[in-house]
Request: fold
Amino acid sequence: MLVRLLGWMAALVAASLSPLAQAEDGYDLWLRYARADDTRSQAIASHATALVTTGNSATMAAIRAELQRGVGGLTGGTIADSQSVQAGALWLATPEAGAVLPVKTDGLGQEGYAIRSITRDGKPVTLLAANSEFGLLHGAYHWLRLAQTGASLDALDIRSAPRIGLRLLNHWDNLDGTVERGYAGQSIWDWWRLPDWKGPRYTDYARANASIGINGTVLNNVNAKADSLTAPYIAKAAALADIFRPYGIKVYLSVKWTAPMELDGLKTADPLDPQVAAWWKAKADEIYRAIPDFGGFLVKANSEGQPGPQDYKRTHADGANMLAAAVKPHGGIVMWRAFVYAHDNPDDRAKQAYSDFKPLDGRFAENVIVQVKNGAIDFQPREPFHPLFGAMPKTPLMMEFQITKEYLGQSTHLTYLGPLFEEVLRADTFAKGKGSTVAKVIDGSLEGHRLTGIAGVANIGADRDWSGSIFNQADWYAFGRMAWDTSLTADAVARDWAAMTFSPDPRVVQPVVAMMMGSREAAVDYMTPLGLAHIMATGHHYGPGPWVSNLARPEWNPVYYHKADARGVGFDRTRTGSNAVAQYAPPIAKMLSKPETTPERDLLWFHHVPWTYKLKSGDTLWDAMVHHYDLGVDYVAQMRATWDALRPYIDAERFAETQSFLGIQAREAKWWRDACITYFQSKSGLPLPPGSAAPAHDLGYYEALSFPYAPGHH
Amino acid sequence: MLVRLLGWMAALVAASLSPLAQAEDGYDLWLRYARADDTRSQAIASHATALVTTGNSATMAAIRAELQRGVGGLTGGTIADSQSVQAGALWLATPEAGAVLPVKTDGLGQEGYAIRSITRDGKPVTLLAANSEFGLLHGAYHWLRLAQTGASLDALDIRSAPRIGLRLLNHWDNLDGTVERGYAGQSIWDWWRLPDWKGPRYTDYARANASIGINGTVLNNVNAKADSLTAPYIAKAAALADIFRPYGIKVYLSVKWTAPMELDGLKTADPLDPQVAAWWKAKADEIYRAIPDFGGFLVKANSEGQPGPQDYKRTHADGANMLAAAVKPHGGIVMWRAFVYAHDNPDDRAKQAYSDFKPLDGRFAENVIVQVKNGAIDFQPREPFHPLFGAMPKTPLMMEFQITKEYLGQSTHLTYLGPLFEEVLRADTFAKGKGSTVAKVIDGSLEGHRLTGIAGVANIGADRDWSGSIFNQADWYAFGRMAWDTSLTADAVARDWAAMTFSPDPRVVQPVVAMMMGSREAAVDYMTPLGLAHIMATGHHYGPGPWVSNLARPEWNPVYYHKADARGVGFDRTRTGSNAVAQYAPPIAKMLSKPETTPERDLLWFHHVPWTYKLKSGDTLWDAMVHHYDLGVDYVAQMRATWDALRPYIDAERFAETQSFLGIQAREAKWWRDACITYFQSKSGLPLPPGSAAPAHDLGYYEALSFPYAPGHH
Reply:
């Protein structure tokens, strides 16, 4: 009997190992729940002897399933469902469940949770308490994270609740399955076969997002098609909403301003036209009939060719408020993007969003939030924080980060965005004196706003690994974690991610985190050091193009941004130039008014300085620029060596993919360095500093390179 | 100790079941090697006690790995590698390996194999013998198929060798990752990250193809970009060739005729210009340096806007022979497509390929093969065989089937193509008297050609399940099996596929095969019964469009094909019409010259007949047409019921996907039926026969439907 049992189990083990699908291919993200070593496994099992829950909602079923999956994977055992609290139980409870809880849930809101190790009838128990099942869901993922990362499960006393209300992904996904600035394959939304076919990936998407606290998703590209508001597409969105609902994730839609004209033949899209308002109201009613908890609309208007209220001589506020009135009876909101610049406005592009929106402060309806990119240009490797943050005290402002790395190496460069997020969130606007950080602007605490939000442009596609590379998954992860808790450090988040994604073994976590933490600065160094920006090649933004000067609109050309000439380099945004610095609060504006007081990392963003300008290090600007390019290249070489040494600890497929991508990154970092140095040298006329290698080719070579099939550009 | 072992195994089992990746998601295709029941498992294990092989080539390693994977999955055990033949061994040998084999390998060629149960030194052994390692590879897959399908492994005496030399997939994959007529996501070729990143999917692609005997793949769309011949893209193709080589699969490229002009500024692409010929020779040399066993070129020229030799007043033969000379020193070939029709030719489109190519018979170089679609129009649900088959005795002709279902329901209709392949291959051309089947034309036996080929336009994409649906995998499978052995029946192939893909349990195989076998006829019925053709909607070919009459070229319009009017319907291709029937051999031409002797399934392809024309059944044409539309809809309803009853036997994900797609198919079959009946009734003016339901909407409704985001149309 025992022999037969052994034989059967051996067979099952062998069978389970044989099919193709079982490799570590990245699909499981940070929710791998790989078998823990014996010590950890026993520790986890001893804190999960039973699972005590109440209720049969889809959310509770999801929580139980996730805990079973997690504990099952980590320990090889199962957790028995139990009605009563026993020693070592995980006890999940809300006040509504009737029990008087030994943990207060005040202040946790509808999404937060507390986890505490308590004694109940003399038995040690882990209590997870929250005001709602969504709170329990987030708490369950927190507990599983502790288990996955090898943290102690003893003597827990955790309270966590998000400071920011809307934590959203923005999908720039088109209805034809392409993804604008997507580097991970087609859209994960199978629009064509929705609402009929609802594959399991949608549920895994919801699990992944819920595990990091994301609570909403804008399904379609901000460059929207009117079709997304037709009945068939509303039904498709509703099918997704049904899947996401148990995970506390709402769906939102981007809308095209002229939809009433395109879909129903209205003569105008003037927001003050009653027929237009009535159309949107009826459309909102139609959507809410299909999706009762629909989140609301995201709007890109009067930007980059998109139509908008200004076409009718109305303001952004007129437009936003009309839409807001349509969704307000249903509890919906409008997210109105501040990313605008006009082809007929000769002013510094960096100033235009502020110029357009600052005068509208206080004129938006209460269910409107203005969505502002982290910087004033466009998701560059580094930008100073956007001057609108802190400048519109009467208006809720929402952060827009770009998780997909349009400008930071796309799918193959390892450039962890955690430090970028951290840098922006901690930037001090001085709007109400020192300590007025961007984080406090967007969490509403600075001005007492209750409608608060943060969005990340998703890096998710149909590629098996979701994000185009294993390390790109870290950016999705970091966005969610830091949106939930803006006080988290990029380092702490990277540690959790590395432990969950690869192994909690410090021989893995330490070097992986070390690679990640310097990687964004390395990209800044080999692409756009010292405040350079937007010198990428045309359209696809793949690779360097500092020489580009032939595009129709001035602000599309790299030369517009760096203004390199024989005298020097950089964009004068002081009073002698565009005076964009005046858009910042006085202490910042003053600091930025002179090169000497401007942080050197932002120097060329704000100043045109001579090639021989002396930096604090004593180096000339030219020498320092070359040095930064070299540093970036060197860092990538260092990452390659670090990764190669990790081979014994990483599964074969993920090891090989990352190794291959680091090879691409090394080649491309050198290409960036060589091309940019060659180009800027043609302006500076200066020799390379000693020890810096000559570029591999002449400028003509780099200028002639062309990449007609670069991805993400539609 | 035993307890610990048990605990460890239980843990491993549980762990192996927990991660996301382990569901049956279709990725494993027909190579699932799912655990067999005890009886089968023991039978398999008893015939695989040891694996005796010689040699350490990559091909031998692939064979060993596949047998390990297969036997491991099916039985839970492993096969030990052994140097000597023991009882129950699998013994793989080629004559070159030195041993005098007890099985003759004469006549097996370089790809065939023999499998025989023999006794060696008194021990029962299964000998797999072949002239080459590729033969052993195919034989190993044959043996594994027997094991997977529950066939007996005793007393084997099998000999198999392909009659057709080139058995290729044609990928209509574009360099930007889209796939023309692809319904399974993006291209599986990650051109952007090749040649650096070579993911495991490429190997699985090679395994799947090798398992069904496919030995070549044309990587890029016949609507080719010149860029595919640049150095970077040659390097990418070479990386794929390196992966496929051990599996006996060569790579080929589609070429754009004007590549010498586009890439290197030549002033002409005239095939008789020495500079043009020199350019292609140098390009071929460059390719062969990177890919020594490169297969050759596929060309679409002077067709649908593609450039070609006729632009220079040269013939297709002039063009093909110039390219052939470039690849000949390297052993390469040229596949020249006969799919041509000219915008300035008012003749029946169905006649034009024959008219262009028949006069060129005997004028092609010996390493040129002309690739002819199965029918004279374009991959319709049913077409009579192409009149070129049998009409060019001095020229090798290659079959082009379309595996991707551009006109047969795309990704969501279950329409098994095996019966279509079988019908075409067995069609009798009468070129050299009765029995001159299409199969004999393309296998070279009819005219003694040694260069022989068959191609299928792939239905493969980056979707997890490869082909857009589980059942679409059967079309890939059937193409390969029937290309290897044109005498196989669609039914036998379906049985193997169903057993391998789902389960050899007859409670599964019987109903699944029953569904499949009638499904293509059902599609003919609900789309284009009685010889109708090409009445699909414009461009994407999704759904019905018999009313379309506004396209620029006459032969793009459905009304061109059905010619329905008050008097009747159908295309007169007899002497009173286009006389296309004269392109067939006299016995066929005579049969087709009158409606009464024309097979009714092809009636409207060849004749314009009155609505009241009496069919053999006694029904009028109109009543019969409606009846066929009803039959098609009814068949889909029947498939749904059959599938629903299979729920206990099919894993959840694949069951749900198929159930969902059958729901789509049922809705769309009814749409096809209703729209076509409504339209044709507007011409016939006749009432529906008794018992036939009125269409759901009026004609205006169907005409107004539009699908701007239908997939596969680029």
